[in-house]
Amino acid sequence: MAGFKDTLRAAFTSWPHCLATYVALIGAAWLLIGGWKPVKRDFPVYVVADPAEAAKTAAIVLNGQIWAVGNTGSMKPLLQGGEVVVSVKNYPAIELGQVLIYSATYHDKPIIHRAVEKDAHGWLMSGDSSPSSESWARVTEKNYLGTAVAAYRKL
After folding, report:
1. What phi, psi does 73 have (nearest 5°)?
2. Is residue 100 within 8 Å of 146, Cβ to Cβ?
3. Alpha carbon 75 to chain centroid distance?
4. Helix pair 17-34, 2-13: axis angle to 10 deg
5. How far apart are CA 66 and CA 58, in angstroms?
6. What is the pLDDT of residues 2-60, one digit of tens each?
């Protein structure tokens, strides 16, 4: 037990161990007080009489594609469900916090979620209403369908 006490004392009093200990404690306190906020690169959501038609027009202008948003609630508050999203395809230009459309083996329809981290295997995704990422799959060039640039919601 004395060995543990000596190690603990060193963590708070011996240079450079004390610096690392205090930095870690300050970081933990910061997260507890302020919370962690993911990077969000949102796009405009337009409220219109005919979302499908407005999205179709925008997609033609942007050379993009349109996608219907399901009523899962996974992207609340940005997307409520029922909107039509316009996307453009440019995998190399994806940035942290953008909303991507992708296909996944575990779902029969395209998924619209946010890029929360990139690793050697691709982009990790998460719905805005989820406290964690979908660590079991990645968005790669193979399953990437587009990056959301606008959404249209009914009046």
Report:
1. 80, 5
2. yes
3. 9
4. 80
5. 9
6. 677 777 677 677 777 666 666 666 766 655 665 556 789 999 999 999 999 999 999 99
